[in-house]
Specification:
single chain, mainly alpha
Length: 186
């Protein structure tokens, strides 16, 4: 038995999972668009818990590495994470205002990276979808920044949903292109 069929099977299984995950991302994006307030609050709560968890990790790490001289700074950093996470959990609506602006910065950075990745992978089939995703994500970042804070109530959930939808579509198209490529080489 040669290694080529085994590689083809692995690639087919990977592309199958990639297609399933892309479809799940599309469905999650549609749900976030349909229920933007719920999605916004959910994002706020998730970020709050992630910050609290990160703060705890910083505190434990600082204590474990206390002999290196960064104990006070590590503890302060851990407390900042935990306090901000707690604030987001206690004040989810006010947290949305801050997160909405943070989302604009995040989407801008994502757009720049996706545009760079599409340029680097331009010779591969499906790379145009990365370019498309980067352009859409850049437009979303600018839209958030231009209308902040007046649309905070709905923008976070809606725009995260749109970003998830287009990311799911672009990943699905790349996965389908990879599957076709594997089928041609098999």
């Amino acid at each position: 038995m040669s290694s080529v069929p085994a590689v083809t099977v692995v690639k087919k299984e990977f592309s199958g999972w990639s297609i399933v995950l892309s479809i799940l991302l599309i469905v999650a994006g549609c749900l976030a668009i349909a229920l933007p307030q719920v999605a916004g609050i959910a994002v706020n709560i998730m970020v709050g818990w992630l910050l609290i968890f990160s703060g705890a990790v910083h505190l434990v790490y600082s204590w474990q590495t206390r002999t290196t001289g960064g104990l006070i700074w590590g503890i302060l950093l851990g407390l900042v994470y935990a306090v901000i996470g707690g604030y987001l959990l206690r004040n989810p609506v006010l947290g949305l205002v801050s997160l909405t602006l943070g989302l604009a910065f995040y989407l801008f950075a994502e757009a720049v990276l996706e545009l760079l990745m599409s340029y680097m992978l331009r010779a591969l089939p499906g790379s145009g979808w990365l370019l498309f995703d980067g352009i859409v994500t850049l437009i979303l970042a600018v839209m958030i920044w231009k209308t902040w804070p007046s649309n905070t109530e709905w923008v976070l959930g809606t725009l995260v949903g749109i970003s998830m939808l287009f990311s799911g579509i672009s990943r699905l198209m790349i996965s389908l292109a990879a599957r076709r490529l594997v089928a041609q080489t098999a």
